[in-house]
Specification:
The protein is of the alpha+beta class. The protein has helices at 2-9, 14-28, 88-100, 126-129, 134-150, 152-160, and strands at 32-37, 41-46, 66-73, 76-83, 116-125. Strand 1 and strand 2 form a beta hairpin. The protein is globular and about 60 Å long.
């Protein structure tokens, strides 16, 4: 029984495969910096936005306030741009830009105290990836991510670059 439990615990599953593939995609893109990841959350940020002061609190060890987070659990794989907990002035500046720009499709009416989602897209359903090889998963996710990086990503990045011109 112990041996079977150990095998089951370390058995690859679709969520682990998705995480592995997404980390590989992020690491292969030299314009991105990967942040803390787990099986359910794969986080990264464009290097061009890494000027935002690292004054986050209670999220990742890097203390980044703004991160893309690919949420990999339940029935979907979603890409979300989050304002995490930390310096309220920085959080407010990011939120204000998001409120003014229509590319940010998930902005709430108020900035919450801890986490605020400002952009979200569905990358895939889990059922579409389950039972596929890592190569097939990578192929499917790469197509969706390529479209994102060529369109909304650039608009979001350009909008947030205006933070670099403000006094922090």
């Amino acid at each position: 029984k112990k041996a079977l439990d150990l095998i089951f615990k370390h058995k690859p599953d679709v969520y682990s495969d998705i995480r592995d593939v997404l980390e590989e995609i992020i690491d292969a893109n030299d314009t991105l910096v990967r942040d803390h990841c787990s099986k359910s959350y794969i986080r990264f940020l464009p290097k061009t936005l890494d000027f935002i002061p690292k004054e986050g609190d209670g999220w990742t060890n890097t203390k980044r306030i703004l991160l893309y987070e690919i949420v990999n659990y339940e029935k979907e794989v979603n890409l979300v741009l989050l304002i995490g907990p930390g310096n309220s002035d920085i959080r407010q500046s990011i939120y204000d830009i998001a409120k003014m720009n229509t590319v940010f499709n998930k902005v709430s009416n108020q900035l919450t105290k801890k986490y605020a989602s400002i952009f979200k897209i569905k990358l895939s359903s889990i059922s579409r990836l389950d039972g596929k090889s890592k190569e097939e998963i990578k192929e499917k996710l790469s197509v969706v991510l390529k479209k994102f990086f060529e369109n909304d990503y650039k608009l979001i990045e350009n909008s947030l670059m205006t933070l670099n011109n403000k006094d922090q």
